[in-house]
Write a structure and sequence with these properties.
Blueprint lengths: L3 H27 L3 E6 L5 H12 L9 H11 L3 E10 L2 E8 L2 E5 L3 E4 L4 E3 L5 H4 L4 E3 L9 H9 L8 E7 L2 E6 L5 E5 L7 H16 L2 H4 L4 E4 L7 E4 L1
Parallel strand pairs: 1-3, 4-7, 7-8, 10-11
Antiparallel strand pairs: 2-3, 4-5, 5-6, 8-9, 9-10, 11-12
Length: 236
């Protein structure tokens, strides 16, 4: 006669053994043995390789959670804005690193990003940096302001095809004409130059050019657009 009570206990015992064995096997079944990478093409190949080398040399990287691994990458390479990691296969993880967006070149040496951070421009590809507008700042330590970021994100990009920008403060911002370096525009953070204003500026510059101002004198002129509905031109 079958003792169902004993069979029940044996079944529970075997089930416990299976669960314990599965828990022990689980890490090995789903542990990461390989990583593949997709790193932002804005970054130079050498810096991309630095990121790969760093990840490959992290002690115990295969047992880290994706969140822990992403944190380590972002902490080591602060110009990386987002790290996304996911399973590509049971033992392969896919790591995607996106850099902060470069906005401009500062003092010919640094890149200003969308997060208001400065990085050596050598981190980014020359194809990326050579297209960026140039800005000069008197002091790097204190002049990366929210106002500067706002202006860089809102000003018409066409401005930088004709001018370089020098930021003195929120109320005194200069655009220096690349063609006629004796002529500049001064504006403030609340009165940004647009296409219509640039057309007026071009007309004024043409008149001055016809008068021989740029060929017969070394004096500098500035077009002040900080006044409502008018441009005031004066000698600098």
């Amino acid at each position: 006669m079958i003792n169902y009570r004993i069979v029940k206990y044996i079944g529970l015992f075997l089930l416990c053994l299976i669960i314990i064995s599965f828990k022990q096997l689980l890490p090995s079944l789903f542990s990461i043995n390989h990583f593949t990478y997709a790193i932002d093409s804005l970054i130079t190949e050498s810096v991309q390789q630095d990121i790969v080398n760093y990840v490959e040399q992290i002690p115990g990287k295969h047992s880290l959670s994706f969140q822990e691994l992403a944190y380590k990458i972002e902490e080591r390479f602060s110009f990386i804005e987002v790290v996304a990691i996911e399973h590509l296969a049971p033992d392969i993880a896919y790591i995607a690193c996106n850099a902060q967006k470069p906005l401009s070149i500062i003092n010919n040496s640094f890149v200003l990003t969308n997060q208001g951070c400065l990085y050596n421009k050598d981190i980014f590809l020359s194809l990326t940096t050579e297209q960026l507008p140039h800005i000069t700042l008197p002091s790097l330590e204190k002049d990366i302001t929210e106002s500067l970021l706002t202006v860089m994100n809102t000003i018409d990009p066409i401005v930088f095809s004709q001018f370089t920008l020098s930021w003195i403060n929120d109320t005194k911002i200069y655009l220096y004409d690349k063609e006629h370096k004796q002529f500049s525009i001064i504006f403030n953070k609340n009165q940004l130059p647009d296409k219509e204003l640039l057309n007026h500026y071009a007309h004024i510059k043409q008149k001055l050019d016809e008068q021989g101002v740029f060929t017969h004198t070394k004096k500098n002129y500035v077009a002040d657009i900080r006044f409502k509905d008018q441009i005031v031109v004066s000698r600098a």
